[in-house]
Amino acid sequence: MKTLVPPPPLASPHSVRGDEKPHKKQGLLESFDAAFIGRTYRSMLVFGLITTMLAAFGLRSWNGTGSFVGGLLLAALMLRVQESSVRGALRPGADASDLAAKLLVVLLMPLKFLAVGAILWFVNSRGWLHMEAFAVGFFACQLVIIARVAGWLLARRGAK
Fold first, then answer.
1. CB neighbour list of residue 40: distance below 8 Å, 6 or more residues apart
2. Do the domain assignments include residue 20?
3. How far apart, in whole angstroms, are the C-alpha atoms of residue 150 and residue 115?
4. Is residue 53 situated within a structural domain?
5. Domain of 71?
6. Are residues 15 and 21 in contact, defined by beta-carbon separation less than 8 angstroms?
7. Share of the chain above pLDDT 70, in %
């Protein structure tokens, strides 16, 4: 009589111990969360270079192109300042004693915006700023941020 012995059970390719489920979705979410802001800055740089060349050909003036670039740079700088301020105040391990640091962030944010407004008023009153090109440059940078966040949200929804 011939005895057939089944082959030994193999471990699942998705787990180490055989009792875990695959975490492909969790890995996808972590890849979008880690360094998201860094990729946003890189996207701003690439999009800014392309749109600056288009603005230079379209506006055909140094004042207009410089104002467009100024709008791009101001939007990126404001995002960077806000990000670093919030990260500094809300770092892991912060406790109630860091309330003063959090309060400082809350008070400094409006003051930063007032300082930027005063500088823009001064530059515009001297005639150094082409306001329409500046506004379009600032808005172009905001479009990059909106597109990156929308893409991140769509990818999270697709990973669920």
1. 79, 144, 145, 148
2. no
3. 30
4. yes
5. 28-159
6. yes
7. 68
